Structures are given as C-alpha cells and as structure tokens.
Amino acid sequence: MSSAYLAPRTPTEHRLVALWSAGLEVAPIGVADDFFELGGDSLLAAELQLAIDQEFGVEVPAAALFLTPTVAALAQALAAAAEEAQAARRAARPEPRP
C-alpha cells in the first residue's frame, strides 16, 4: 500500500473499495492507496471502469483510473461526473409552457 491505511468515509468510497477489492483481490484497501501500486494494470482498469459504470450509472472516461488512481480522488471525480450528467439532463428538458 502506498500510505497509511485510511478507511472509506462515504458511501461512494465504500462502494469503490468493494469494487477495487474484488478486482484486485486485495484487502484492505484504503482511500489513499494507489490502484497501480496495488497491482492494477491497464486491462484491470478497463474492467473496473465497466464495473464502475454499472455500479454507479455514471459513465467514467477510460482514463479515469490513470488520472485519479486513488479511491478518494475517483470518488470526487464520480461526484463531479454525476453533477455534470444531472445538469445536462436539466438542460435537455423542454421549458414548461405557461
């Protein structure tokens, strides 16, 4: 592990830790641990990206784990992606008629 163990603090972090643990077959995983230092590679990153898309219903870019390789950073990126998706849905709704 890359640093002292930091337990998940939010529901999103808990869900991500569960996905990472299943994919990496490593436990415990802390929110500051680096995906690649734990044994992750590009193939596993792609598999995990699909699992995250399914688990959260939010499409994350293929490079997400390369740009945000910790649970904490990925949780923040997921929150931002969810907000963007919600804003896009609101913008796509037609204006109510008077």
UniProtKB/TrEMBL annotation:
Entry coiled-coil feature ranges: none
Cofactor: pantetheine 4'-phosphate
GO biological process, one term: secondary metabolite biosynthetic process
Pfam families: PP-binding
Keywords attached to this entry: Phosphopantetheine, Phosphoprotein
Residues of the Carrier domain: 7-82
Entry GO terms, CC: cytoplasm
InterPro entries registered for this protein in UniProt: AB_hydrolase_fold, ACP-like_sf, PKS_PP-bd, PP-bd_ACP
Domain of life: Bacteria
Gene3D superfamilies cross-referenced by the UniProt entry: alpha/beta hydrolase
MF (Gene Ontology): phosphopantetheine binding
Family membership: Belongs to the ATP-dependent AMP-binding enzyme family.
Name listed for the protein in its UniProt record: Carrier domain-containing protein
Source organism per UniProt: Streptomyces alboniger
Phylogenetic classification of the source organism: Bacteria, Bacillati, Actinomycetota, Actinomycetes, Kitasatosporales
